[in-house]
Amino acid sequence: MENGGISSTDTGNGGEDVYSSKESNAFCADHLVVMVHGILGSGSDWKYAAEKFVHQLPDKVFVHCSERNAAKTLDGVDVMGDRLAEEVLEVIRRKPSLRKISFIAHSVGGLVARYTIGKLYKPTMKVNREELLNNAESKGKIAGLEPVNFITAATPHLGSRGNKQVPFLFGVTAFEKVASCVIHLIFRRTGRHLFMNDDDEGKPPLLKRLLEDNEEGCFLSALQSFERRVAYSNVGYDNIVGWRTSSIRRNSELPKWEDSVHEKYPHVVYEERCKAYDKELCDPTVEIDGLDELEEELVNGLSSLSWEKVDVSFHKSKAKFAAHSIIQVKDQSIHSDGADVIQHMIDRFLL
């Protein structure tokens, strides 16, 4: 299907490819951008963003909107991650000229993408962690491609069980405890993973395992291999994913924000670049700041890598209570206020 210089191809049970209608541009595009939907979502959730990326970077990017997990988002982060890994490999087999790869994921899709890259990661040589940090050539590849951008939007990196991590529970401890006990009845294995009460064969919770290289996959090395990691977060009105968990921060680290940092991006209210720090050097006497012990491990583990953090606010939007969907422009007719966030992603995107 062609629309304004942009073509799309439905790949059946494997999502939709979006690319330039101009044959020479489509041929030159060697950067695969995999867009991953969240829980109860589908590949069409990223339609607006996919078309914007191709329209502005026609000879650079080839976008794939993942669909393999649509209607199957309750099966667990690991199961969905395995499906997505196979889907990515199929895309690469269809277009063998691809050289680079980036991921843009919404909500739980960010956790699924982190699992996927761990399964697809292959080191270029055997090196220790210090060499990985200092030598870009030794950082390995994802499915044989050079990893560039790993971007999440409203992803619960710290899980959902902590205080105010799921805003619609109003921060009431009793509600949060009950939710932790019954969430599997609604969201099944995915719910267990989010509330970190999964116990697969006696293993630690999956979100903790995603901080490591282990027999399941090289999850930490894979995430580290990307040139940049970016977390977009809603500072408020996201009733599904709290600000702290999506921005990988402790309460005391949540910044004070203003209405806008740039007129081109009216809903971007704060940006910061966080350098990697050594979790082994963290002062064990520092107050955990409202986080439970496992959440603190997740913060420390993820903060051992550098991150760009972009905080957005739709508090002036008529549809502000749909912030969780606005941040990705899930439906252009009602979520268009998030268009500047997508533009921000494009303008900062490394090619």
What does this structure look like?
- It is built from 13 helices and twelve strands.
- The protein has helices spanning 23-28, 47-56, 77-94, 108-120, 129-134, 173-194, 206-209, 219-225, 243-247, 293-302, 323-326, 332-335, 339-348, and strands at residues 2-3, 6-10, 16-20, 31-36, 61-65, 100-106, 121-122, 141-142, 146-153, 228-234, 268-274, 307-312.
- The strands form two sheets. The chain has a ten-stranded mixed sheet with strand order 1-2-3-5-4-6-9-10-12-11, sandwiched between helices. It has a two-stranded antiparallel ribbon with strand order 7-8.
- Strand 4 (31-36), helix 2 and strand 5 form a beta-alpha-beta unit.
- Helix 2 packs across helix 13, helix 3 (77-94) crosses helix 4 (108-120) and helix 4 (108-120) crosses helix 8 (219-225).
- The longest helix has 22 residues, at 173-194.
- The chain is globular, with a radius of gyration of 19 Å.
**How is the largest sheet built, in terms of strand order?**
1-2-3-5-4-6-9-10-12-11
Poorly predicted ranges:
163-183, 284-288
Radius of gyration: 19 Å
Structural class: alpha/beta
Strand content: 15-25%
Assembly state of the chains shown: single chain
The helix content is 25-40%
Global geometry: globular
Mean pLDDT: 88
Count of β-strands = 12
For the biggest sheet, the summary is: 10 strands, mixed
Summarize the helix and strand pattern as letters: EEEHEHEHEHEHEEHHHEHEHEHHH
Count of alpha and pi helical runs: 13
What labels describe this entry?
351 residues, alpha/beta
